[in-house]
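Collaborator request log, item 7. Partner lab (contact: R.S.) asked for a structural prediction of Receptor-like serine/threonine-protein kinase to inform their binding assays.
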Amino acid sequence: MARVAATFMALACLCLAPAVGAPATVSARRPLRGNDTLVSAQGNFELGLFSPAGSSGDRFYLGIWYKSIPGQTVAWVGNRATPLSGLASAELRVSADDGNLELVGPTSASSLPVVVWSSNLSSSSLSSTPGSNNTAEIRDDGNLVLVDGANSSNVLWQSFDHPTDTYLPGAWLGENKRTGEYQALSSWRNAQDPAPGMFYDTVDPNGTAEFFMLWNRSRVYWRGGVWTGGRWSGDVGAATGRGTNLYNTTYVDTPAFRGTTTVLSDNATITRLVLDLNGQKKQFVWVPASRSWQLFWAAPTAQCDAYALCGNFGVCNQRSQLPCRCPPGFAPVSERDWTLSDWSGGCRRSSPLTTCAHNGSTTDGFLALPDVKLPDEPLAVGTARSKAECESTCQNNCSCQAYAFSAGCTVWHGDIRNLEQLFADSSSPGSDFYLRLSQRALQDLHNVHKKKEGTKLWLVVGITLTGVAALGASVILAWRILLARRRLAVSMENENGSSLAVYSYGDLRAATNNFSERLGGGGFGSVYRGVLKQQKGGNTTQLQVAVKKLEGFARQGDKQFRAEVSTLGLIQHVNLVRLLGFCSSGDEKMLVYEYMPRGSLNGSFFDGGACPSWRDRYRVMIGVARGLAYLHDGCRERIIHCDIKPENILLDEDMSPRIADFGMAKLVGRDFSRALTTMRGTIGYLAPEWISGQPISAKADVYSFGMVLFELISGRRNSERFGELEAAGTFFPVWAAEKVVEGEVGAVADPRLHGDVMPEELERACRVACWCIQDEEAHRPTMAQVVQALEGAVVVHAAPVPRALQRLAT
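Returned to partner:
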């Protein structure tokens, strides 16, 4: 956890009234029964019994969840490992005997009500007055408390001292030195079982001021770094700028307790920190505009860095939708657990190894797994000087499970953990890993491979014969389709004034070589490079294009899609990427754009390329401003881009900027907010009104443009940290806005330029950027005014530091 810098302003508060008639407290005389719930005073949180989403509905848990956030986001669970089997006799009550808070009900082992969970306070911890007077309540910070019946200010027990997988602001994580009890996070076992899983996040048991993430409570796989006085040195949220300044962090170390807590910078923010069942610690913030949780950072950043995520013999693949798979010749130990994203049980051999003879020899062989990160705990075999000797050494040892030979021979005994599939562009090279399999398993794999090859041969023969028979019909059909397409294209041009070409799915699949060269992607789909053949004057020419394969458009009708696309085809400007055509074939929707050889602004300016000159930067600033001004005021119908960022600004061969993805908000409609807030990096450019849920106007684009201006001026992404800003934990736009107000614009410029800038242009651009990121829409200029300012047609005075940024700076 950390002190982090915010790239956005305040989030909207959910001020919701508690349900009418809901009990306010739980006591010995007023228990919580069955489906009854307890709601906090302002309606933020709700306490009751729940059954995990997707489960069979025969297991019930005492839980706390957000009252009015869709999807029942659970933040705490009481009886994690001892679920109730029904609600009929279930009861949360204060014990009349000892004053403890307890959950009573039937279980799978007993149909009679039994105590399955209790606050479990000793008699010395409870009040001297009768325990039956104690009461329990859920507070607006999500804390369930048991209060002394004789003294309401005396909290006897609280859920904040017993977190499950979720940390809420205001709680503490650490160690009670007097009792030896730890306030730590532990993951769920799987998506339907909140019982403690394999991953654990805790303060260092050895007494240092550092937090560890552990596998099986024994193996450290991530460290939070040392406490620097304001944050943890290894904190991902601070290092990346994701979700920065959500809260202020404190660490204490006293004779009684050592640990950390956080206080929200803005009480309207709704955020939670979760140790998920895949072993990553994730910071989420609720975004009312999209009614969804926004992931701000995760640690470790790579999912496969969670130790033994895929269990014994499992292989982790960071680029796969499901990260875990079993190697050939293996199968999941529990298929059901794997369907619930619980891979901890790992894999086992489909066919057992043969029994070793008395001399250690077997008929087992080895399966090669290429390009993998080798598991830990290897044993070096110095006597083996070749791969053959290494294999023989392993084969003749009954306990040897695998070997690898690179600079030397290494072997593995026992279970294999932490295998990871690597790729040619991975940060570290992979190795060939040879896994022991029985002769029968190897033969089965060989037979399967042989059968597939045979099937392919017959398919080739069958397809060839069928193709010859259908060739004549295909030629006739293709000719008819070509004529129909030409008629449709002419029809669209005549009716709408648009000259968009209409392509078939086959056309674009062939042009992109089966979508083989991916240029990039975002929340709306992936972009592929393609080459279209065109007939002009009897000659065949080739046109390079960028094909955007849209995702999530299956529900949109063909007629509606064509109408919206034809409108976009009318929009043409020198600083906009030109739309050439489209494809609408069933669920497949694609847009065809002119190809930009220099790629995006992000790739050309920020990803380690050559340092662009000030002239090129200023040319990009003015070009983007003109393109946005045209979208806002030059079209028949105003178009708000809604996602201005370097990735959506492309460069042609002359380094002229072209804005891409304009009109996507119009195409996607009501789903645009949801798609936008799932895109990595977008959140840093969102205007405050996006976050607070207010209506969106063209001024939202102005705000995003201001953020891009700062990046062009400084030559760095706003989320990056360096030098004095890293030490101070400061977000760059905060620092830059202050420097501009103080008149020190030279400090904001990219140091790689060595002062080779036009001072007047630099000051003008800095001041425009500050005006663009003002809190209130009314205080921001229009894009037409921005163009005038950058061109020097009007005088630009210094802007105040935005109030929200000013609060962050102090």
